Amino acid sequence: MAKRDYYEILGVGKSASGDELKQAYRRLAMKYHPDRNPDDAAAQEHFKEAKEAYEVLKDPRKRSAYDQFGHAGVDPAARGPGGRGGFHGDVGDIFGDIFGDIFGGGARRRQARQRGSDLRYAMELDLEEAVAGVTREIRVPTLGRCGVCEGTGAKDGQKQTCSTCGGMGQVRMQQGIFSVQQTCPTCQGSGQRISNPCTTCNGQGRVHETRTLSVKIPAGVDNGDRIRLAGEGEAGASAAPPGDLYVEVRVRPHRIFERDGDDLYCEVPISFTMATMGGELEIPTLDGHVKLKVPQETQTGRMFRLKSKGVQSVRSHRTGDLMCRVVVETPVKLTREQKDLLRQFEQTFTAENSKHNPRSQSWLDGVREFFERMTS
Length: 376
Prior knowledge:
- There is one protein chain.
- About 30% of the residues lie in helices and about 25% in strands.
- By secondary structure, it is an alpha+beta fold.
- Among the domains are: about 1-75, Helix Hairpins; about 260-375, Sandwich (HSP40/DNAj peptide-binding domain), CATH 2.60.260.
- Strands 1-2-10-9 form a four-stranded mixed sheet. A four-stranded mixed sheet has the order 11-12-16-15. It has a two-stranded antiparallel ribbon with strand order 3-8.
């Protein structure tokens, strides 16, 4: 089945800003989160779609590739075996490979291949782990240096100059009026030949292996942050230095909190009685519980700020705030007696209703003025 358009999944246009993308993703994540829909396979599929779409579109580089090439520009499955299992190697410039051979770029390509490829690994963390920091062990399939030949590819460690290209790595061919320079077919551009190849790596100098690494994630990391592990990428060809490994952090949506920079946000349901008469609530934070005093006549949507109860930034070490938005919850499944009491309470509101419900009265006045203007 063909993948749906990422913009369509999030319900935004192609010109949507980063904030609009974030808001759209939050709305869908809250609606379809597996914790809220434990037995709904369709909701979980919607959640996965929204998460994948947001991960691509929030990254300017990935978004640009998606806008140009669609899913083929960002789908790891299209990048070969290295793109599966949570990591993938760097993808070369296919046009550079083609035109480099034709117009003499073989030497540049050979030089670029000397250092091993960088790898990326996607590490998913809970919000608590990202805030507090964590040390994780990961297993990374990669190409490592052959221990038998020390990466040379030769059983005796000796290489000879390629007789076809004279060590240049390129050969020149005449095609009509054009003189075309191509990668040497004998040595594949290396300029050297191996007469006695290593039997362990078949002369490649590298072998497939799975490396176990311990990665320390610092406290305060956020979605998209990367940790560089120098020298832990693929081994270089012909005993050249290895590339690096980049561990990219992906923070799972939280059941209670949403993160925006160093601040946390949460919705707190309160009863009609507490909203009217005031009271005290116990609010969870990432480092314990705190008391929140709700004043009388609190309206739904009011925001309360709990200073320094957010996330400590991994860069500035500033600690953000926890923003609590109260929502007045309408009681459900009332008994007959409770309904009768509510009707009696409603009857106590007389012509002075505007004193008790100022927003409602203001809205009614606005509606009245609107219709008067329409009919005049």
